[in-house]
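Q&A log
Question type: sequence-to-structure
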Amino acid sequence: MLSYPAAIPLSTRSLNHLAALIRTRRQQQRSRWRRLDPGRQALLALAHLRNGDTYTRLAAGFDIGVTTAWRYVHEAIDLLAATADDLATAMTRIRLLAYAILDGT
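Response status: OK
Response body:
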C-alpha cells in the first residue's frame, strides 16, 4: 500500500475552487460515480500542476489507473482554462499593475 504525500504548498481556497468546478461539471453531466470525489480529483490535478508529479506516481498514490489520472488532470485543466480571462482582458489588468511576472509554461 502506497500513500501520497499531501505536503503541497497550496491554499485551501485553490483546492476548494477547483473542487467546486469539478462538482458543478459532474452535476451538469449527471455523472453517477467516479473513482475519486471532486476534492480528491482537485488535489490530484493540483499536485500534478504544482509539483509536476508523473501520472504513474499520481496513479499509485491515489490508487487509480494511469489513464484515469491523466483523464482527471486534463479534465481539471480544461475547467480552469474555461474560467481564465482572455488575452485582451489579461493585458488590460496587467497594464494597471506596477509589474507582472509572466510564466510561459
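Response note: DSSP finds five helices and no strands in the chain.
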